Amino acid sequence: MRILFGLLLIILAPAPLVAQTTDGLRSQPFVFTHVTVIDATGASAKPDMTVVIIGDRITTLGKSRKVRVPANAQVVDATGKYLIPGLWDMHVHVFRNASQRPPNEYYFPLFIANGITGVRDMWTKLDKVAQVELWRKQFTERPGTVPRFGAVGTIVDGLPATWPNSDTVSTADEARRMVDTLKAGGVDFVKVYWNLSREAYFAIADQTKKQRIPFAGHVPISVSALEASDAGQRSIEHLDGISLACSTEEERLSKIKPSDLPPGKYQQQVFDTYDEQKCARLFSHFAKNSTWQVPTLSIFQRFNIDPNTLANDERLKYIPMAEREEWKRFITRLEKRTLEQNAQRRLQVAFKLIGGMRRAGVEFMAGTDLGNEYLYPGFSLHDELVLLVQAGLTSMEALQAATQNPAKFLGRLDSLGTIEKGKIADLVMLDANPLEDISNTRRINAVVVNGRYLPKEALQRMLAEVEATANRVKPR
User: Fold this and answer.
1) Where among 365, 388, 409 does a domain terminate?
2) What's the mean per-residue pLDDT of the chain?
3) Are residues 41 and 162 in the same domain?
4) Pair 233, 291: CB distance under 8 Å
5) Distance, CA of 281 to CA of 271 (rounded, Å)
6) Are 18 and 98 within one domain?
7) Is residue 218 a contact partner of residue 157, using CB atoms and an 8 Å limit?
8) Residue 344 lies in a domain
9) Phi and psi torsions of 333, nearest 5°
10) Ranges assigned E (strand) in 55-169
């Protein structure tokens, strides 16, 4: 897929862009006029606004009748359009470490075309950090060809490892040394995983504090969700361990391996013993400890979709042929219903958990777990926002989960995440109001990446080239 990068630069070239400086920033002001701004701060939509961008920054933001447009500016009349901050997918897997194959660079134009300007990669091994730094350099030098890599983390698991090629530790000393190694190697956070022992997990929690590097990820089998929150885990992915922590039978069930029971029986026992008061106590800890949640509802929703619908999804045309063939194995397993017997109930419980956490003041981020079958780069983030609203978030809260909240989580709210004067111009222009219907985030008219304007025509060319490359038969 590396050939796609050269092609992407070619197809972007004809777009009506103004001059760029050598560092990729615009040398001429760019202006949206008469646009409705949804700034993602929680404020109401602001109609008839003018937004002036110089370089990579929003320099002026105000009512169109009051803003003076620079004489040499490129101006887009955005009457009837809606401007939101660039979106983030806070749980992606760009690298394919388990199979040791090249990274999925075809994701990048699909991210941009879908308004995803930033990502958090959840499994970047040490030998891949240099590649991420190259992408970060490319982001500033050639905006619009790659997303912003806000953070990358490395999986640390116990034995046996859940995934091939994972970094593993068995003791507290090994765990501490691993944290030191990852910090020295340039990783942004440590991703804890299911099979970590208690001593290794709490050693990671302690050593990351000393090294001033966060840890996030799964809740290991050996640790409760409450303990994880109190230990300082920054985010919990997939609502991991939370339904168990809400069970009146948590102590008994935590000693059982789910694989020791028939498929679906373990989850059924967890769901049958759900206790709302126990949940409420847990959620108050999450809120007090600022334990963020990345529910990745899209990964659960796949099990509720008819196999024929999955197999005929029109977005498959953007997925490389070889990868599509691999995905068919998921369809086969789904048809046999061996993966998940309680799929619909699991999603219902997830919605209940999210509703309870929202009422308790727990904060959320949108993430998809991209890298799994039938999750689509960029597209699935919009599906995730719809699911978050179905779970009880307002449209504004769902939008914030993909804009303001990631910036806050990453410590970048001073420059990213909302539309305000002085902030970086990562923006998405929509044809319809996402506060009226969150699915309107799919109705993308233009994207601005680090100050570079990409109109609909450029985005459509990007999609067309990805499709052509994905369906190109390689010579034998």
Assistant:
1) 409
2) 93
3) no
4) yes
5) 18
6) no
7) no
8) yes
9) -65, -35
10) 57-63, 74-77, 82-85, 87-92, 116-121, 148-157, 167-168
The verdict on pTM exceeding 0.85 is yes
**Can you list the alpha helix ranges (DSSP code H) found in 250-341?**
250-253, 265-272, 276-289, 297-301, 307-311, 321-336
Residues 297 and 270 in one domain: yes
pLDDT reading at 402 higher than 70: yes
- Enter the tokens of residue 155: 């999986």
Q: Is 161 exposed, middle or buried (0-12, 13-18, 19+ CB in 10 A)?
A: middle
Percentage of the chain surpassing pLDDT 90?
84
What's the pLDDT tens digit per position in 97-153?
A: 888 888 999 999 999 999 999 999 999 999 999 999 999 999 999 999 999 999 999
- The answer to whether residues 327 and 274 belong to one domain is yes
Domain check: are 158 and 98 in the same one? yes
Assigned domain for 127 exists: yes
Structural domain that includes position 63: 3-85+416-470
Phi-psi domain of 392 (left: phi exceeds 0; alpha: psi -120 through 50; beta: other): left
The per-residue pLDDT for range 404-435, each reduced to its tens digit, is 999 999 999 999 999 999 999 999 999 999 99
Pair 245, 142 in one domain: yes
CATH number at residue 105: 3.20.20.140
Domain presence at residue 263: yes
CA dihedral over 317, 319, 325, 331, signed as positive or negative: negative
* Token code pair at residue 185: 């190697």
Residues 123 and 92 in one domain: yes
Examine the pLDDT at 168 and tell me if it is beyond 90. Answer: yes
Average pLDDT over residues 76-96: 98
Q: Reply yes or no: is the peptide bond before residue 214 cis, omega within 30 of 0.
A: no
Confidence of residue 235 (pLDDT cuts 50, 70, 90): very high
Residue 100: inside a domain, yes or no?
yes
Q: What is the rounded average pLDDT of the residues 309-333?
A: 94
